[in-house]
Amino acid sequence: MPDLSVALVEARRGDEAAFRLVYRMVQPGLLRYLRVLVGDDAEDVASEAWLQIARDLVSFRGDVDGFRGWAATVARHRALDHLRRRARRQGVDVPVEVVASGLAAPDDTPGSAMEAISTEAAMRLIAGLPLDQAEAVLLRVVMGLDAKTAGQVLGKRAGAVRTAAHRGLRKLAEQLGEPGFPGAGETGGG
Amino acid sequence: MSAHRPRRIGRGAAERMLRGGPVNAGAGADPLADLLAAVAAPARDGELDGEEAAVAAFREALLAHVTQPQRRPMIKMLLARLLTVKVAAIAAGATVISGAAVAASTGTLPGVGGGGSAAVSPTVTASAEVTGPSVGLPSAEASVAASVLALCHTYTAAVASGASVALDSPSMGALVTAAGGGDKVGPFCVNALRDAARATVAPGADAGASMGPDHAGTGVAVEPGAGVGVNVGPSDAAVGAQVPHASVGVSAAPPGAGAGVSGVGVGANAGASVRR
């Protein structure tokens, strides 16, 4: 597994190969995170996000965690811009969250007993969560952010992100046939 | 499907899952852990399709970073310094080359004072004062690497167009190293480009390097008989020199500093003025 922190330093020095490594390590998570925000437009929005990341990487100051958080923030902003544009085009005036959750809603929900769950199916399940929970889970699991950084991306406190993520996990567990776990409604922990 | 018993997941376990850590020993026995592992799985087909576009943006950003239009005032200062030094260097060179011309203006060379130019002025001492700073500058060798010269061209072109030059960018590293420091890049490039022009100009040929009018311009013309001409555009500083045979001309536009000398034939006249 290539070291993202090393690649990041070298990419900031202008090393193209290192930038490719950074892209390959971050893009899958970014794309999957965007999927719950903008659905099928995730690829386009990810491209927009990478344009900005590539442009501003040289002036980025921070470590790997900071970079992941920054990338997620950039992607999220591009996604919200995208949703606003789309909402305007469609002449509807609805909150971004509604647009996002509506568009990203799963078209089918896998049954409870799954043997080897595919990334696709897993994504659909998570996209079916309330948006704040889906975002919290994905920022933590696929973008690798800690609760604090995820909170910065979402403009929330770390505790709120933990709560949302725990609730999301409980819901997922229910859908998977598990009873869930206690404490999902409380803040703190971890 | 293995029969998994309903179980309770504590906050600690949830946090471990969210961090992607192992949840329990029986891998595959926990659907939720499987699900989280699945969403965090490595890239699938198509997920990295945007790589080339991203890399292209990265390349573009690197180039743009070298000449991003910011911090213009600072660059103007740098430019002013750069040109002051240029004036000094040229003045010094002119003094050496055109001993005859200077001599003419100071009256020690008889019979040629005046000529056709009214710009005769005995202020050569002013340029001599300006000459001071040029001492100790890194003198560019004629053997400056072509790549460094190219960077100098990029640098001066960027400065001339009013863009700032990010000397700390990787691509400018070689130039900064060659110059011996970021603050010496300007003078270094002046010298390097001038020397390069000298070195490559054959007798009877003309070489010119010029920058945009508004900020700085450099024109170098070398004619048979070891003439040197340098011209810098008006608004910041200007130096013009022409040396048919033994005379040196240096001229500068108002807001900057400069010296004006024109001569035809053997050291006809010399004039220099410095206004700042």
Verbal overview:
The complex is a heterodimer of chains A (190) and B (276). Chain A has 190 residues and is an all-alpha fold. Chain A folds into two domains: 1-99, RNA polymerase sigma factor, region 2, helix turn helix motif (Rna Polymerase Sigma Factor, Chain: A, Orthogonal Bundle), CATH 1.10.1740; 102-190, Winged helix-like DNA-binding domain superfamily/Winged helix DNA-binding domain (Arc Repressor Mutant, subunit A, Orthogonal Bundle), CATH 1.10.10. Chain A has helices spanning 4-12, 16-38, 42-56, 64-89, 96-103, 119-127, 131-141, 147-154, 158-175. In chain A, α1 crosses α2, α7 (131-141) packs across α9 (158-175) and α8 (147-154) packs across α9 (158-175). Chain A starts with a helix and ends in a 15-residue tail after the last helix. By secondary structure, chain B is mainly alpha-helical. In chain B, α4 packs across α5 (99-105), α4 (72-97) crosses α9 and α8 packs across α9. Mean pLDDT of chain B is 59; it is low at 1-6, 99-142 and 200-276. Chains A and B meet through α2, α3, α6, α7 and α9 of A and α1, α2 and α3 of B.
Unreliable segments of 5+ consecutive residues of chain A: 101-115, 182-190
How many H/I helices of chain A?
9
Could you estimate the helical fraction of the residues of chain B in percent? Answer: 40-55%
The top-level CATH class of the largest domain in chain A is Mainly Alpha
Mean pLDDT of chain A: 84
Anisotropy-based shape of chain A: globular
Sequence-ordered SSE layout with sheet pairings:
The complex is a heterodimer of chains A (190) and B (276).
Chain A: H1 4-12, H2 16-38, H3 42-56, H4 64-89, H5 96-103, H6 119-127, H7 131-141, H8 147-154, H9 158-175
Helix pairs in contact in A: 1-2, 2-3, 2-4, 2-6, 2-7, 3-4, 4-8, 7-8, 7-9, 8-9
Chain B: H1 11-18, H2 31-39, H3 51-66, H4 72-97, H5 99-105, H6 124-131, H7 146-160, H8 173-179, H9 185-200, E1 220-221, E2 229-230
